[in-house]
Amino acid sequence: MDTSTVKVTPGFAATWPAKHGDIPNAYVKADKENDLEILLHVSSGMDINDELQKKLGATNANKVALDLKKSLYGLKQAGRLWNQLLHASLSDAGFTQCISDICLYFKRNEKDLTAAGVYVNISLVTATGAAAVERGFISIALLSNKNLGSVSKFLGTRVMARDVHTYAPD
What we know:
Protein name: FOG: Transposon-encoded proteins with TYA, reverse transcriptase, integrase domains in various combinations
Strand order of the largest sheet: 4-5-6-7-1-8
GO molecular function: RNA-directed DNA polymerase activity
CATH architecture of the largest domain: 2-Layer Sandwich
Low-confidence stretches: 163-167
Strand content: 25-35%
Structural class: alpha+beta
Distance between the termini: 18 Å
Radius of gyration: 21 Å
CATH class of the largest domain: Alpha Beta
Keywords: Nucleotidyltransferase, RNA-directed DNA polymerase, Transferase
Number of strands: 11
CATH topology of the largest domain: Alpha-Beta Plaits
Domain Reverse transcriptase Ty1/copia-type: 14-160
InterPro entries: RVT_2 (IPR013103)
Number of helices: 4
């Protein structure tokens, strides 16, 4: 993450209304690459009954393999696949990725400017109006973004919204 996201997004949040969220199990939301076949061994705790073994043409459970459909945390490409899904979701919602910082997205309409800062599975949405924050936050809801409410801290930076708006690093 570029340091501009850590500086700019909480800076906006200190001046504008903001919400932050967490996207649980982010990496496993992305599909694996279509041209890549990943097979897994059946784990020791999983029972494959005799009927299913016969149907699959296996002589025992050790001969059965599972075809992976989604990404896993341990895959080398998991981070890239998650980032592609996140980028596609934000782009579909009308956000434009910042040229100088790939973790920062903007959306402008007639009345409002909305900024979304994302670091892996942590999100912060801030805008010139509270309704725009809600709309921006809802646009990430497709990814099961868990609403953590008004932002008070983002990536180690405390955000204090007051009459005199300030933000202070911890």
